[in-house]
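Bumping my old thread because nobody answered last time. Still need a sequence for this structure:
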């Protein structure tokens, strides 16, 4: 796993439209789809792989319902990069500590996934880290309603992966969905989980 994920720990940001269009993102599942025409905002998330005796699992968050963007959705801990962040890794670890209280010294960064461009205009770097259980958490009640884990084996199984389409704010969108128990994991989070599964299955 370390070997497969360590191809790049901190990637550079793309600036030209041609490179951005070739990136993984909300647009890449739609034939002829294009990324947002506006300038992209750099962001980073942590993909926490929790080490448990029964196997690895992925830690995810449920966002609170009152947020202006992505309310109630399932996501990785993370957010926009700040000018004070040294790189995407530091941004992901800082945001994770702020959102769920997971100290950075509990995370062993082992690599990253493909940069993901969202329809809302973010250029997201998914940083993958190992977390040994048990681990301390302190949720930011404004942003995070709860956290939960999904077995990595569930994510790796292609049978648990669906493609859905719908009209969202006047635009036709196609996206991955991973229904897990009563949870509906979709959009950018599901897209990054599919990327994780592809990397580990390669």
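Sorry it took so long. Here it is:
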């Amino acid at each position: 796993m370390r070997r497969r994920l360590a191809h790049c720990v901190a990637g550079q940001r793309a600036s030209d439209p041609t490179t951005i269009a070739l990136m993984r993102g909300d647009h890449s599942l739609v034939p002829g789809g294009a990324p947002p025409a506006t300038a992209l905002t750099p962001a980073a998330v942590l993909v926490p792989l929790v080490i448990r005796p029964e196997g690895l699992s992925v830690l995810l968050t449920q966002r609170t319902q009152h947020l202006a963007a992505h309310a109630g959705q399932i996501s990785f801990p993370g957010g926009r990069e700040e000018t004070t962040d040294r790189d995407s890794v530091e941004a992901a670890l800082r945001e994770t500590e702020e959102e769920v209280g997971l100290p950075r010294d509990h995370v062993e960064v082992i690599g990253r996934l493909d940069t993901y461009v969202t329809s809302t205009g973010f250029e997201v770097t998914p940083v993958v880290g190992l977390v040994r259980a048990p681990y301390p958490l302190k949720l930011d009640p404004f942003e995070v309603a709860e956290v939960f884990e999904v077995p990595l084996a569930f994510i790796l199984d292609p049978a648990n992966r669906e493609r859905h389409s719908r009209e969202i704010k006047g635009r036709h969108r196609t996206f991955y969905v991973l229904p897990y128990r009563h949870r509906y994991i979709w959009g950018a989070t599901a897209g990054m989980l599919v990327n994780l599964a592809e990397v580990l299955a390669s």
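The chain is about 20% helix and 40% strand. Let me know if any region looks off to you.
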